[in-house]
Design brief:
Pfam families: Ninjurin
Low-confidence stretches: 1-8, 17-34
Keywords: Cell adhesion, Membrane, Transmembrane, Transmembrane helix
Helix content: 55-70%
Strand content: under 5%
Shape: elongated
GO biological process, one term: tissue regeneration
Largest sheet: 2 strands, antiparallel
Mean pLDDT: 74
Number of helices: 4
Order of helices and strands: EEHHHH
Family: Belongs to the ninjurin family.
Distance between the termini: 72 Å
Organism: Seriola lalandi dorsalis
Number of strands: 2
Strand order of the largest sheet: 1-2
């Protein structure tokens, strides 16, 4: 045992000194009942925005791939115009959301001057993401025919 604190049995039967382990963790924080001042809101908001942007890029690439598949199937495809229109609408919304995400990420949320504007931009981005979500549900519903994902059964 290293310290004089309480010990527990860890993995592989070794004793763990809980006192020395606690010294490596933050003493308090908003999740442990401490103050929220230890939490850097600007860093949190930037990371959240970056993650949202990466998801937007992934969906953007998936929609481009889907559009390519629909175009390759040709105008004989039953919902050709509808799916192409929905994909184009989704891509346009994703571009606008991406621009808003970049603008939000570049601003400092801890500055009081920016907070109201960033809150509005964040709300607009949330609405856009919801519209993208709904649009992509329709794209998925209309895009299931002849994609090769669901082979037709012949009885």
């Amino acid at each position: 045992m290293q310290g004089l604190g309480k010990t527990e049995r860890g993995e592989q039967g070794r004793d763990i000194d809980l006192t020395s382990l606690r010294s490596t963790m933050p003493a308090s924080g908003p999740l442990q009942g401490g103050s929220a001042s230890n939490l850097n809101m600007n860093l949190y908001a930037t990371k959240k925005t970056a993650a949202e942007g990466m998801l937007d890029i992934a969906l953007f690439l998936a929609n481009i791939t889907h559009m390519k598949t629909v175009i390759e199937q040709g105008a004989g495809y039953r919902y050709y115009v509808a799916v192409l229109t929905l994909i184009s609408f989704s891509l346009a919304l994703q571009i606008v959301a991406g621009i808003l995400i970049i603008i939000i990420a570049r601003r400092d949320v801890s500055e009081e001057v920016n907070q109201k504007r960033l809150d509005s931009m964040n709300n607009i981005t949330t609405i856009l993401v919801f519209l993208i979500f709904v649009t992509n549900i329709f794209i998925s519903v209309f895009g299931m025919e002849r994609t090769g994902l669901f082979p037709r059964m012949h009885f």
